[in-house]
């Protein structure tokens, strides 16, 4: 079974690399042709950016495979030799935190290159070194505190219950719901400054839009996203009474009121159609499958690594192999998500107009340098949204 695990991870890596190669070739064959949706200059630039990110993905996948074999071959034993706690709970927490820290440090060059080289060259990233370092420190502290507590809870569940994976699933799912509930009010403000929308007319229009959809929120806020990135975005965050509308300052600056309302109408469409509950349900199914799998891993896998089947190794394998499971489950969940996006587009059009939503989508693609075409395999395995060209055609726009 140990050898099967190695083969599956290798095949998973090959599949990711193949998809990235096919995406790069597909985009390269289109970017110098007739421009659609975007201007000729932006179309080519978006294509070049997409090709570069595909190349990074290829190198990153190779790196991940190398790291996987390094951890399996000698990394875990090396880490075990430097961590010495008699208390099994403290040992589990320390081992996983050390594992995460090593992966973070070794993977940092990819993030630095993406942020300070690639995204700077293409005019996305506006972040400075000070802000980047502070963000990393804040994230590390939060992971150290809350990650340690979650690891401790899971370690306790593993040693206390024979069918630990059922209780582990329940605990993690509750934690995820809790994080979603507090994210817009407690977590996001740690990284961004939230301020009430300073446009009374726009705020009134947004509140009317939400009222028609039967949605109550704790307010409409604008965040200073432009201090890190120029991309446009907006979201409804939180659950229950913590729900709030969050607009990137870049979005407010670039979109006209009718376009902004159409975009928010799209997001409200997800609420109106119960997509939030559906997504929570889909996430629960995916998480349950993962816990069921890792809760029943054969002992032979641990024997193959010359390690005991201990709480920390069970959780480590969860961290290492869960991306593999989610990758092969993604085609189904992606298909459902893309179906929901069309319905949300229809609702957004009803809130404002098809023309306003189409105009907003084109501006979003233009500002975010989103190449409007993708290889079918990329769409199948990675896209939660339909291709922009398909969405625009549904809205009555001729993209030929």
Helices, strands, pairings?
Layout: H1 2-30, H2 40-82, H3 88-121, H4 129-160, H5 164-191, E1 194-196, H6 200-213, E2 220-223, E3 234-237, E4 244-248, H7 249-254, H8 257-272, H9 275-294, H10 299-304, H11 311-351, H12 354-367, H13 376-382, H14 388-394
Parallel strand pairs: 2-4
Antiparallel strand pairs: 1-2, 3-4
Helix pairs in contact: 1-2, 2-3, 3-4, 3-11, 4-5, 5-9, 6-8, 8-11, 8-12, 9-11, 11-12, 11-13
Write the H/E string, N to C. HHHHHEHEEEHHHHHHHH
The residue-averaged pLDDT reads 90
* Overall geometric form: globular
Low-pLDDT stretches are none
Strand composition percent = under 5%
- Integer-rounded radius of gyration: 23 Å
Number of helices: 14
Oligomerization: single chain
Keywords:
mainly alpha
Structural write-up:
- By secondary structure, the chain is mainly alpha-helical.
- 74% of the residues lie in helices and 4% in strands.
- A 4-stranded mixed β-sheet has the order 1-2-4-3.
- Strand 3 (234-237) and strand 4 form a beta hairpin.
- The protein is globular.
- The N and C termini lie far apart (51 Å).
């Amino acid at each position: 079974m140990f050898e099967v695990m190695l083969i599956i991870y290798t095949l998973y890596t090959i599949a990711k690399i193949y998809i990235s190669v096919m995406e790069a070739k597909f985009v390269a064959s289109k970017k110098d042709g007739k421009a659609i949706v975007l201007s000729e200059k932006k179309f080519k630039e978006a294509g070049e950016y997409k090709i570069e990110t595909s190349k990074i993905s290829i190198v990153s996948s190779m790196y991940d495979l190398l790291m996987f074999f390094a951890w399996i071959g000698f990394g875990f034993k090396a880490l075990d030799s430097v961590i010495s706690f008699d208390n099994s709970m403290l040992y589990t927490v320390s081992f996983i935190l050390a594992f995460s820290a090593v992966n973070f440090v070794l993977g940092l060059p990819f993030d630095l290159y993406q942020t300070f080289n690639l995204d700077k060259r293409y005019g996305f990233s506006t972040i400075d070194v000070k802000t980047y370092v502070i963000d990393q420190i804040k994230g590390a502290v939060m992971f150290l505190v809350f990650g340690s507590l979650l690891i401790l809870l899971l370690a306790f569940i593993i040693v206390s219950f024979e069918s630990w994976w059922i209780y582990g699933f329940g605990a993690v799912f509750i934690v995820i719901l809790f994080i979603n509930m507090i994210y817009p009010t407690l977590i996001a403000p740690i990284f961004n400054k939230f301020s009430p929308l300073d446009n009374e007319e726009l705020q009134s229009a947004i509140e009317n839009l939400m009222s028609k959809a039967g949605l109550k929120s704790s307010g409409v806020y604008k965040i200073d996203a432009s201090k890190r990135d120029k991309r446009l975005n907006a979201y409804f965050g939180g659950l229950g009474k913590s729900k709030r509308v969050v607009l990137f300052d870049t979005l407010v600056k670039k979109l006209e009121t009718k376009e902004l309302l159409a975009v928010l109408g799209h997001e409200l469409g997800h609420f109106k159609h119960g997509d939030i509950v559906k997504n929570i349900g889909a996430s629960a199914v995916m998480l349950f499958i993962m816990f069921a799998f890792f809760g029943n891993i054969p002992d032979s896998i641990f024997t193959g690594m010359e390690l005991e089947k201990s709480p920390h190794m069970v959780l480590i394998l969860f961290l290492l192999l869960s991306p593999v499971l989610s990758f092969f489950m993604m085609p189904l969940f992606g298909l459902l998500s893309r179906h929901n996006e069309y319905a949300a587009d229809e609702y957004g059009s009803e809130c404002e107009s098809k023309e306003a939503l189409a105009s907003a989508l084109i501006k979003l693609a233009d500002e975010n340098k989103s190449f409007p075409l993708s290889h079918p395999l990329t769409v199948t395995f990675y896209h939660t949204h339909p291709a922009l060209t398909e969405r625009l055609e549904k809205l009555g726009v001729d993209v030929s």
